[in-house]
Structure prediction request, 249 residues.
Amino acid sequence: MLQCVPGKPFVIMTLRGRNESLPSVMLYSHTDVVPAPFSEECWKFAPFEAVKDVDGKIYGRGTQDMKSIGIQYVEALRRLLGRGQQKFLRTVHIVWGPGHFFFSALTLLTTALFFFNKLFLEEEVGGADGMEKFADDPKFAKLNVGFVLDEGLPTENDTFKVYFADKCPWWVVVCCRGQAGHGSQFLENTAGEKLQRVINSFMGFREEQKKLLESNKCLKACDVVTVNLTKIELAEVMRRNSRAVFRQM
Prediction:
């Protein structure tokens, strides 16, 4: 176990390969999960009970994202070893930790590329205290990682989906300043008018991308740019100027 930051440990389980000089394989899972609502009325089953229903589905906090994938890694290796599998050619590391590797699945990575990608690593709790510090730790370099499988999607059949890329999020903050005054007048150059033009521009582009996706069955969401308005802050009045802030993801 390695703790780059107290309270945020990385648990590393290693199966030594026949040729330890070869770049190793890392099967990575992040342990942090989104918060459970305070009210259990939002849950079909209590979030911390890990209840299995009659169909074999397990309900609980983090079962989908991404403990279901992590247990698949462990179970797959356990079954292979149980069937008499000897040492693999390469060393295999099963790693649990806070945050995950963006853009790293199915990619043969050099150490330099890992250190570049660490700038984009974060999950539910962010990667600054997790994967970023782990990538800087000398113990990470000693793992000699050349191939990583990170977060994917669980399936209900024998099809195992593997992704080689991830969408890159852009957080755009637009601040509109304008004239403020009494509501009995038609004021010119207001923040609201400017904000409307900005929103119309974003929503127009959003509609274009949505129609493009819907018109071509060969395209998926990862092939277009998704745009969503996530927050509009309250206007402020400062020195007779109004300000509206538009947050866009």
Residues 2-149 form a domain with the Aminopeptidase fold (CATH 3.40.630.10). The chain has two domains: 2-149, 170-248. The chain has five helices and eleven strands. Helices lie at 63-82, 111-117, 131-136, 138-142, 191-215.
